[in-house]
Amino acid sequence: MANIAEIKLDNKTYELPVVVGSEGEKAIDISTLRDLSGYITLDTGFKNTGSTQSAITFLDGENGILRYRGYPIEQLAEKSNFLEVSYLLIYGELPNKEQLASFISGVTHHTLIHEDMKKFYEGFPSKAHPMGVLASMIAAMSTFYPDVYKTEGDVDLTIQRLMAKCATVAAWSYKKSIGHPVMYPQNRLSYCANFLHMMFAQPTDDYHVNPKVADALDKLLILHADHEQNCSTSTVRVAGSSQANLYASISSGVSALWGPLHGGANQAVIEMLQTIRKEGGNIGEWVAKAKDKSSGFRLMGFGHRVYKNFDPRAKIIKKACDDVLQELGIKDPLLDIAKQLEEIALTDNYFIEKKLYPNVDFYSGILYRAIGIPTDMFTVMFAIGRMPGWIAQWKEMREGKEPIARPRQIYTGPVNRDYVLVEKRK
Ligand code: CMC
């Protein structure tokens, strides 16, 4: 296999190294091209640009493959649990018994947030979007737990704090939005059961977590845990490359996740299904609208930058969704609309030709609804799931001593011109 690429520019040939990944993926290393030739490469939206070499997640969009540290997502979703998967992503290998127990204990014992931080909730408007609250609270954590990072132990402590406290911050933002008192974490509960407790328990009632619901939530978090160099993860790595602390870097990732083209799509899917239902449920009409570019409407939950076959996470979630609805005896009319939409879109030439398949967000919203999570908390759920991935990517970037991220550009504005005093301007 050639390990040198040749590029011809202005009648000169330049040799550039070819990098090959462990799954045979190939890249041309263009980092010296500008110094050699004066040219840069241009790739808006990074559609064909590798920003790093990473050993965390392997994704083959053409064949619908997703693996964390080599382990297929299907096996992890079936046999592992969220905290074990988090350890795997962050530290590179599955933990032994002691390592797992110590990690779980660390995450469990850091779920409380500083009482002074509780006061911040009084400053947010009651209708504040919980993603705005989450991003702000995570950034604020850096002021309460300033990073020192003198020893490896400091980083591990910060990791445990983030994993633990993001669930508390998220659940409390929901309690605040409905004007209820916050529920303190319970260390006897598992990660997901504790989150459900903080979301749905009331001081006035006994609340028992349904273990099947906690399991389904755990599976959802596993499926969201990492997805290589997506928009929010790249944001975390870019922010962290300036040596910004872990809280600040993750907070910027939360903000990037918020948009409807990324993590915000799960909320947008449910809103779309509700609109379709409200307006009579004529699925064909909506599919036609999605195909008509001038309508500005897209089928939310369809399409993906890298999956051009199917999203393996969507398959697992679809099944989990059916199981939970059955367990809870819920019949959700939105699920019927989603299934019809999927059926029509998957047999339509527009979607087939453009390789647009349901993505992870298409079904996750239905599952969150069944669990009782309000719509504007869906993207927060995605953020809780993505936390170990962001942490793993930040850690890999820092340990690899990657340089500060600083892309170049092609300037298209006015060329040099002289300033004119305002009274002389026409
Ligand atoms: N409905 C209708 N047409 C679509 C859709 C859609 N959902 N998605 C893409 N297309 C069309 C698009 O109009 C374009 O057509 P053409 O080639 O004729 O111009 C073509 O398919 C390629 O689309 P693109 O926008 O150039 O592709 P992209 O890779 O830049 O965008 C995407 C990927 C996910 C942003 C896009 O498919 C989309 O907007 N989907 C809906 C939002 C969504 O579900 N996002 C969640 C992604 S999964 C969660 C995550 O990992 O972030």
Structure description:
The protein is mainly α and 426 residues long. The protein has three domains: 4-50, Rubrerythrin, domain 2 (Single Sheet), CATH 2.20.28; 73-259 and 383-394, Citrate Synthase, domain 1; 265-371, Cytochrome p450-Terp, domain 2 (Orthogonal Bundle). The chain has helices at residues 33-37, 73-79, 82-91, 97-108, 115-118, 120-123, 130-144, 152-177, 191-200, 211-224, 231-241, 246-257, 265-278, 283-291, 312-328, 333-346, 349-353, 360-371, 378-399; strands spanning 4-9, 12-20, 26-28, 57-60, 65-68, 71-72. Strands 1-2-3 form a three-stranded antiparallel beta sheet. The chain has a three-stranded antiparallel beta sheet with strand order 4-5-6. α4 crosses α8 (152-177), α8 runs parallel beside α9 and α8 (152-177) packs antiparallel against α19. The mean pLDDT is 93. Carboxymethyl coenzyme *A (CMC) binds next to α18.
Give me some keywords for this one.
426 residues; mainly alpha; Rubrerythrin, domain 2; Citrate Synthase, domain 1; Cytochrome p450-Terp, domain 2; three-stranded antiparallel beta sheet; 19 helices; 6 strands; 52% helix; binds carboxymethyl coenzyme *A
Q: How does the SSE layout of this entry go?
A:
Layout: E1 4-9, E2 12-20, E3 26-28, H1 33-37, E4 57-60, E5 65-68, E6 71-72, H2 73-79, H3 82-91, H4 97-108, H5 115-118, H6 120-123, H7 130-144, H8 152-177, H9 191-200, H10 211-224, H11 231-241, H12 246-257, H13 265-278, H14 283-291, H15 312-328, H16 333-346, H17 349-353, H18 360-371, H19 378-399
Antiparallel strand pairs: 1-2, 2-3, 4-5, 5-6
Helix pairs in contact: 2-10, 3-19, 4-8, 7-8, 7-12, 8-9, 8-19, 9-10, 10-15, 10-18, 10-19, 11-12, 11-19, 12-19, 13-16, 13-18, 15-18
The structure holds carboxymethyl coenzyme *A.
Carboxymethyl coenzyme *A binds next to helix 18.
